[in-house]
């Protein structure tokens, strides 16, 4: 069991101590595990990367025991903006040492945690934190989000969420400096029995709120109902059924990009909804 991550909530400014902020994760990783998240980032955040006057910097926070996800993030983001640089950050020194042989132009690895130890004045235009907060308490999430968002460059994006071990099912939250913006549900459609199967991959801020009376529970209930109502489209393939489900769902929930761009994302097995619709009720 990892130590209880109480250090995460420190109010000391970044750089005030050489000790990284956070706790060591299990480090589980696999090639292509984050491809769905990366594909969404490249499509949605690509314009911001291209607008950057300097080479945009993206952080892969907590990449794990092997550096595959950081290597892949560089390749995928360079498809959107060839100047992109990626920095993998890990709190476990041995993992950083193991990743160093993979460094090349535009890719480097640093020892650190939630303080994001980039040298001043460098600030990331993207922070991706996948499968990092699962071990933390729900009441710690907001402080982590705030800390990470404070490290973003103007126009930057934080993407934080969870996926299964082979990347079939993802749910992530996208945040800007003002806070959470959207929640995206993404899946390999051929593996999906019903949309609520994605509940097991809800990020820490939502996973314990999938109970009656909470917005995310109502959303997943309506998601399943729309999926069931769209069953006749299954004869045309799982993708057409998913698209029809999204159209049904958009009648009652604020899905983003319901036009041509939305259809393009739906075809990829994604649905994105405004955070305000799923935000947990106050306790």
Task: Describe it.
Helices cover 32% and strands 18% of the residues. By secondary structure, it is an alpha/beta fold. The longest helix has 17 residues, at 35-51. The protein is globular, with a radius of gyration of 19 Å. Mean pLDDT is 91; it is low at 1-17.
**Structural class per helix/strand content?**
alpha/beta
Taken as a percent bin, the fraction of beta residues is 15-25%
- Mean pLDDT score, rounded? 91
Strand order of the largest sheet: 3-2-1-4-5-6-7-8
Number of helices: 9
Number of strands: 8
Pick out the low-confidence regions: 1-17
Helix content: 25-40%
Succession of helices and strands: HEHEHEEHEEEHHHHEH
Summarize the structure.
The chain is of the alpha/beta class.
Strand-helix topology:
Layout: H1 35-51, E1 57-61, H2 68-80, E2 85-90, H3 93-99, E3 107-111, E4 126-130, H4 141-150, E5 157-163, E6 169-176, E7 179-187, H5 204-207, H6 215-229, H7 238-249, H8 260-267, E8 270-274, H9 275-278
Throw out a few tags for this protein.
283 residues, 18% strand, alpha/beta, 32% helix, disordered N terminus
């Amino acid at each position: 069991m990892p130590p209880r991550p109480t250090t995460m909530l420190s109010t000391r400014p970044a750089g005030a101590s050489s000790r990284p902020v956070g706790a060591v994760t299990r480090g589980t990783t696999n090639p292509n595990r984050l491809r769905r998240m990366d594909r969404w980032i490249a499509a949605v955040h690509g314009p911001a990367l291209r607008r950057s006057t300097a080479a945009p910097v993206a952080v892969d926070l907590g990449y794990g025991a092997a550096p595959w996800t950081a290597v892949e993030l560089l390749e995928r983001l360079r498809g959107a903006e060839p100047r992109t640089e990626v920095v993998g950050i890990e709190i476990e020194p041995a993992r950083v040492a193991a990743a160093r042989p993979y460094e090349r132009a535009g890719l480097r690895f640093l020892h650190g945690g939630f303080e994001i130890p980039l040298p001043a004045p460098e600030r990331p235009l993207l922070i991706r934190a996948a499968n990092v907060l699962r071990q933390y308490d729900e009441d710690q999430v907001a402080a982590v989000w705030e800390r990470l968002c404070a490290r973003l460059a103007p126009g930057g994006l934080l993407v934080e969420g969870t996926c299964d071990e082979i990347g079939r099912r993802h749910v992530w939250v996208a945040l800007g400096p003002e806070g959470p913006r959207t929640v995206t549900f993404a899946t390999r459609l051929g593996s999906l029995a019903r949309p609520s199967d994605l509940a097991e991959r809800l990020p820490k801020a939502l996973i314990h709120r999938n109970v009656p009376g909470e917005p995310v529970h109502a959303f997943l209930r309506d998601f399943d109902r729309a999926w069931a109502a769209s069953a006749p489209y299954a004869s045309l393939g799982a993708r057409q059924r998913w698209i029809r489900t999204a159209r049904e769902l958009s009648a009652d929930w604020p899905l983003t990009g319901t036009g041509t761009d939305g259809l393009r994302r739906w075809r990829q097995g994604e649905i994105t909804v405004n955070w305000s619709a799923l935000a947990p009720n106050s306790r």
